[in-house]
Structures are given as C-alpha cells and as structure tokens.
Amino acid sequence: MDIAPFLDKPTAIVGTTGAGKTFAAKGAVEQLLELGRRVIIIDPTGAWYGLRASADSSSSGGFPILIFGGDHADIPIDPTGEAGKALALALADRDVQAIIDTSEMTGGEKNRFLTPFLENLYARNKAALHLVVDEADEVAAQRLADGEQRLFGAFDKIVRRGRIKGFRPLMISQRPAVIHKNVLSQIGTLIALKLTSPQDRKAIDDWVKGNADADQAKAVMKSLSTLPRGQGWVWSPADDVLKLVKFPAIRTFDSSRTPDNGEAAVAPALTAVDVDVLREAMKVAPVAETSQAPAIGAGKAVIEAAEQRGFQKGDAAGYVRGYELARKDGHANAYRQGFRDAAKKIAAAAELAAKLEPDDIEVPPIAGTPSALAAVHPDATAHIEKSMKAAKVIVVDPLRSIGAGDLPASLQRALDSVAWWHSIGFDEVARNRAAITAGLSPTASTFGVYVGKLVERGLIEASSPGHLRITEGGHHAARRERDLNVLAMAKAQLEPQPARVFDFVVEAYPAAISRGELADKMGLSRTASTLGVYLGKVSRLGFVETQPGSMVRAAEFMFQRRR
Length: 563
What we know:
By secondary structure, this protein is of the alpha/beta class. Helix content is 44%, strand content 11%. It is globular and about 75 Å long.
C-alpha cells in the first residue's frame, strides 16, 4: 500500500515492541525519500542510519540522507542549545533530507539541544517538511518532568499550528498512552500495529471517538491485541480510508536488528553525501545565539566603547597572526603581513563589537609570549602587551605556571578530570574515560574541543593513540578534587531504560550476566530487538564489555577510586 499520501497530515505510528513498528515506520519514510520529499528524522535510538545503505549492507541502494550526531555522523553535533539553533537555521531554508541522531545525549542534553532546534525550525521553515520523531513520548510526554515544558511547547506548536508553515509531523511510539493527549488528538492518520497494553489501546480508543466511525472502531479495537507481526491498520478518516495492511520488508539496511548468538554485527557501507556546505553554515550560525545588541537608542558612549573593544581584540588578533606567520616562514616580511591582516581584523571586529558584549569574541591562544613577539619586532613589546591584556588573550609561557583561575570553567573541569586519573595511579587515561569524569559524553565532540584547547595551552598532551597525559604545567593549573564516583558519572550519561540495563550489569559485577537474564530483569522479550537497542547505547559508551556466550560484564574502569 502506498502510505505517502496519508503522511501529508499529522500521523502517528504505534505498536508494541516486536510488532513490526520499525518496518512500518522506515518503509513509510523510504516512500517519502523516494519521492524526494524534505525529511528530517529525530532519532533517539541510533538506528535510522540504515537508510544510507541497501538491505544487503552495500552503499548502492541507500539514500543520500545526511546524518548529524551519533556513531555514523557526517557532521558531529554538540548537545547544546547553540548547536541546536545552528542546526535548525542550517536546515530550515534548504531542500534537505537529514537524520539527527540524539542517541548519545543524556535526557538533559536532548532537552537543551532539541528545544531551540524545534523553536528555530518552526520560526524559519516555510516549505513542506516531514518531521519524523521516533520515540515521540520523549518530546511530548503525557506527564512532563521539570524543565520539559518548553520542549513540549515547541513540538506541540509544530503539531497544532505547523501546517501553514509546511510541517507534516510523523510520530512513532510503542506507548501511545504516554504521549501527551494534546498532541495525539491532532493526528489525522493513525497507523496502528499490535498493542497489548490496555492503557495503550485506551489511548487509541480516545482518538477514535473524536475522529472516526464507532462501528468501524469496534473491529479495529478488538483486533489490536492479536495482530500478527508486521500487520496493522492504516486509518485516515478524512480520506475515508480504513485498511488492514501487511507491511513489507524495508529495502534499506535493517540497523535495528539484534545479531543472533555467535553472529557478528554488520557494519554497512554508507552512501556518500556532500556535507561541506552545511558544515560551513553550522559554523557561522551559532554567533547569533550569543549576540546581544545594545538597547535601542544606546548612547554614543556605548557605541564608542564597543568599537574600542573591537579595536583591541582585532589589534591583538593581528599581532597573533603576524607572529604565527613569522614563526612559520622565518622572515620579517611575514610579520608586516600580520599588520596588514590586523587592519582587516580591526575593522571587522569593531563592526561586530558594536553588537556584542566584551566576552563574546574569543581570540585564540598562542604558543608564544610578548617577548618572543618582540624578537621579531623589537619596538612592539609594550603595545603588544597592552593590546593582549585589553583583549584578554591567554598567552602560554613555558617559563611560568598557569593558575587555575586563568582557565574557563569548562576547560578547568576537563583538565581536572585528567589530573584525577593521574592522582589514582594512571600515568595516562583513555580519552573517553576522561570525558566521563568531566561530566561529558564520551561520544560527543565537546570534550575533544576542550582537549584541543588544553593541548594548545601545554596543559595536557596526547600520549598513545586515544589517551591523554597531564603535563607539569597542567599539574600546577589543576585543582585538587575530592574523589569522584565514576559509576554515578557514567550512569548520568544514560537515558532511563539504558540506565536500568546499566544497573543490572553493575549489580552483577565482578561477574558477567547473560543477555537473556538481562531481558528477563527488564521485563522484555528475549527475541525482540529492544534490549539490543538499550544495551547498544550502554556498550557504545564503553560501560560494558561483551564476553563469549552472549554474556556482558561491567567495565572495570568504573570501579576506580583514589587509593
């Protein structure tokens, strides 16, 4: 059955675990992609990347859909509001097909990222757009936790008012009972597979009473608890369509499938895509998030002060550029080029500074000192020092120690994490473990950015591949932290269901636990793919180790304590 015509109105695909909901949903999205529709998928499961490969795991049959975030990212994303807004602004005006993988984000990170993403997507989008939201109850829960109201409000606005702006939302959930009724009541097409829970059938019954014929509803509601796998009702009252459908196998790679015992997971070859334009757009967009324009009617003194800040920042940046060129080329003419660069930077920075607060422009640190710069241009010492001080440029001098107060809080936390591992006996620490004890996701790019800045400052160094070591200067700059609870910090990276898997695996430590026993403890079917999805999220973060015989064991590093 061609489902695409019914997806032009708000749609929900619901079905219990193992009912075939994933095939129905991915099959519907495949139809949209084949038609060349604009599609954005919010993927909290990390399983939609399979659209980029054919069913036999080759790249020839996949769709060239962009992937943001997650293990298969074309472009990594940080779990921040700035990144969410930047991505929305980059996608809203483009004819694009994209997956936004939030599977590696914690619940709080998703909230911070998705709220401005949805708000700005709603504000800017003006063309037809199919917004696919898997596990829709995560953004539109019936019972909203503290801090979730704004995220729900953004999604609710898209569902209720978004049609005039081009939105065609498609919600996917195994628990319609926990989707907010304000959202569920707005759907025009219902695709319902097997639902065993009375509460979930009741949620569907409530929609039926408001939208469809009561006699038709009786047959549908009676069958929901016994529908075979892969079969479901397609119901669009406005189109006078009610049909029982057997959903075919998807034609792209089944990335949700759990490997059988002894079977290795397949890594598919993904269809190539061009990401350069979007990557560049996302670099520029975050500036608007932190920009703060002066109040309307701001006095002349305010503008002049802003221009002076811009001069100082641009001036210092020009000297930095001059030194870098001189050091690289070994020629005084290079430094003169730096002065010419400075003139351009001063003009641009002054224009921008009229709109920004003093700390909104960050001048990169340099590996040198004013005295080193003066060796290239002896008369410049005093002016360089004055400009750098005014612009708050951090200068790394190997002859002096850097105090802890000289670092931004984010970098200090990352440095302290590496220092803590050294304090308990590790000369070097794996990067992903240091990310965890810094309170950051080991799979997001944020920690890597901090590491790069700390390396530039000479506070840490990359030792063996994937490992970090603190330097002597880093020891002076690090704070002496109390002992860290690695277990608690690791668990904080997980959503509720993967966190339950984590708890059961930790409970069994130092022994391993079988996947079957885990499924039983979770109340899940041993043959369904759900446990594999949850366990995969825990495994990708390095918190569990797979052992022979379908056994898993908690990673030993989480049990480290200061000796």
